[in-house]
Amino acid sequence: MYLVLCIIFSVFAYSAQETVKVSVFYESLCPASQEFIQTQFYPVYQKLGPEALTVKLFPYSQVKVKKSELNIKCQHGEEECFANKIQACALGLNDSNENSINFVGCIMSTDEPQKKSFNKKCARKNKVSWTDIKACINSDQGDTFIYEIYNTTKALTPKLNWVPHIRFNDVFNRTAEQAARENLLHTVCEKYETKKPDGCDEAHPISTEEEEDDF
């Protein structure tokens, strides 16, 4: 009986792993956004996994509504709008699940995430339907996902003035964001109030430097 109780308790304790929510607002062709996702966000996501991290990614585009039509513009041009829409469709169609996060991590590993050929490879690799994404970006559905991200971004308090913009558990803290740019693993691991996930054993603090794209 004692052994059975111990096993049950162990299973329960494992399933109750505390999670930290990380929200990243970014532009797909912004060099600072690319660097953060390549060197900080995606390696940390791979290390800690969806069991310990709840992730929300927001590829940001500016949107204006005129006569019920959406006018979408991006700081780095039409290619960025296209790349943002691909990622917005992948995330929206798959409810930001693990496969779609891995898809974004894959395509943001290049400095040219707007290239269709690379996107298709990342879709196959991460079991995300490129057929569904293609249908999304060529229809009103893609614009709808972009508009939803825009509205979420505009509702932020304090407002978004640069990218990448990083929030933990839906709260913005400038000091935490600056630290996350240089050492996301340590910053995230400091947020766990109970048992830290195994990947946090490798977390060590380092100094930070600020780099951002201002609006």
UniProtKB/TrEMBL annotation:
Main localisation: secreted
Cleavable signal peptide: 1-15
Disordered: annotated segments: 196-215
Subcellular location as annotated: Secreted
Keyword Transit peptide assigned: no
GO CC terms: extracellular region
GO MF: oxidoreductase activity, acting on a sulfur group of donors, disulfide as acceptor
PANTHER family: GAMMA-INTERFERON INDUCIBLE LYSOSOMAL THIOL REDUCTASE GILT, GAMMA-INTERFERON-INDUCIBLE LYSOSOMAL THIOL REDUCTASE
Annotated protein name in UniProt: Gamma-interferon-inducible lysosomal thiol reductase
Organism: Psylliodes chrysocephalus
